[in-house]
């Protein structure tokens, strides 16, 4: 009778023939009465009637071969195993390499057979599903895997992104520093011995109970992070920025209640308010159309275009009137240009303060958030505020003047003005300040 041979096609994986010690190739014979271990013979030794110890030539036997179909009439069991081994060796999708390794089938035949019987076969699909469910049930009580985080990034240790992720380590599903990280320290010196008094024993039990409550709080916080997908903070912030400004404010206010509602209910709550905001804005727009006498959307598009054009023209007239107002006063014109530069750079425009002489003087420059401010001392900050010079430019001018002074052994004001091409009054103030503070010397 025929039986399925070893799963491997390599003869070195099978035990040798018990008669001649040669490596077995299919078909070969297995004694049905001897063993274990199995008593295997090649066809030559079987035809000679080889006998050894308890094995007799008249014992029943089995012919071991894999030359029969399993899933497809045109594919033998041996070819099925060869296909699986080739896919394992060459990788899924490399069908030309798989066909080259098999030698008996073409690229198209290998791909079609594998996809039909091993990928799209409902029998194998249900088996894989059962295996996956069993694996999930087995690991149900292990470390929290943070699946909603969608495979968070794996930054280098102590990088900015790693700090944003609170030191989360995706490979371990854990944090570098846990919540209440030193909770275990209270247990390090506790030892239950037989001669403990009842009060001391009760105190030790109370300490252990407190430790358990702290562990539960640690797990509760991990569960909140896992359920809401808070590990990948940047992705969370990107999703939050898709809402309008008003809804973002509501989102920020209601974030503290997310742990009570749960992730799905909280998202529904925010989405419902976002929808309400959109509806109210659309209703307001339709009411504006109705007040303007518009009754169809074609006219509404024309109205929106004309409104946008009118707003742009009004802004241009406002800017022109300001230019005409300040064009006769150089100081006021410079102040207006500075204010427009602040607006273009995203800073809050400064408000002019009238002087006693009737001329407008610019207020001190606000250095908050400007690059290079942390590199200045208090006197340098005061100079930059009064001269209205950004810290980065001041540091460049200072470095240039100091280097030139070191080369020449001293520096004159005319040389300083030739090095830095800015307002002469600002150059004079910077030059005097550097001499007063000892950074440079006069030539």
From TrEMBL:
It is found in: Chromosome. Transmembrane segments: none annotated. Its main location: nucleus. GO terms for cellular component: ATAC complex; nucleus. Residues 351-372 are annotated as: Disordered. GO terms for molecular function: chromatin binding; DNA binding; transcription coactivator activity; zinc ion binding. The keyword Oxidoreductase does not apply. Residues 74-118 form the Myb-like domain. Residues 356-443 form the SWIRM domain. Gene3D superfamilies: 3.30.60.90, Homeodomain-like (1.10.10.60), Winged helix-like DNA-binding domain superfamily/Winged helix DNA-binding domain (1.10.10.10). It holds the Pfam family Myb_DNA-binding. Keywords: Chromosome, DNA-binding, Metal-binding, Nucleus, Transcription, Transcription regulation, Zinc, Zinc-finger. InterPro entries: ADA2-like_ZZ, Ada2/TADA2, Homeodomain-like_sf, SANT/Myb, SANT_dom, SWIRM, TADA2A_B-like_dom, WH-like_DNA-bd_sf. Residues 12-69 form the ZZ-type domain. One of its GO terms (biological process) is chromatin remodeling. Residues 70-122 form the SANT domain. This is Transcriptional adapter 2-alpha. It comes from Galbula dea. The gene is Tada2a.
